[in-house]
Amino acid sequence: VDRALRQWQVLAIPIRTLVVEDVSGSMVASTGSGTRADLLREASLSGLKMFPTNAEVGAWVFSIDRGGPGIDYKEVAQIRPLGARSADGRTHRDVLAEAVKKAMADVHGGTGLYDTTLAAYKKMLQTYDPNFSNSVIIMTDGENEDPNSISLEQLLAEIKQMQDPARPVLILTIGISDNADTQALKAIADATGGTSYTAKTANDIRAVFVNAIAARVEAAGK
Fold this sequence. Notes:
The chain is α/β, with parallel strands linked by helices. The protein has helices at residues 2-12, 36-50, 92-103, 113-126, 152-162, 182-192, 204-220, and strands spanning 15-22, 30-31, 34-35, 56-62, 73-81, 133-140, 169-176, 196-199. Strand 7 (169-176), helix 6 (182-192) and strand 8 (196-199) form a beta-alpha-beta unit.
């Protein structure tokens, strides 16, 4: 009974997450019946449907200097409840879906993975909400290509230094295709107690979310 109650309490906590998507030039490479950008678009839209209405979700895209000189990321949707309505009457879920479609139609540049990941982690720590399960979801098809960015070792060290047991923020990484730097992505996820996956098809994203929920249940039962 105690274990069941713990599991219920964990799953009852709503999700608050920042989804960070790769829009670098390598996303035009072919995979299956389309491009990696097509795969990420379909996977993202499929995953978005699986979030409950009370989840709070925001979105960034990244390449190199995407947000201006020295800033590899750009916000395309604020973190808001998916059921919230915008001024034109659309739900935030619809706003996010449109932002993903638009972003995947404009892919160019290199992959600024490490600086973007650090900025996203800082963002979620600074805006941490104790009433939610706070996380970052990184989705990329490659490896860090920004010559001016921090190294993987520096990224992991900064993440560990910033970690606060009272404000846990997990990083979940999803590699798009076999060309993703799975070792780096796993190291990033492991640094926060998160999980790392590889998505080769749009349907794989469903398994990612099912596994993530299962991991929450398992953790609650310990």
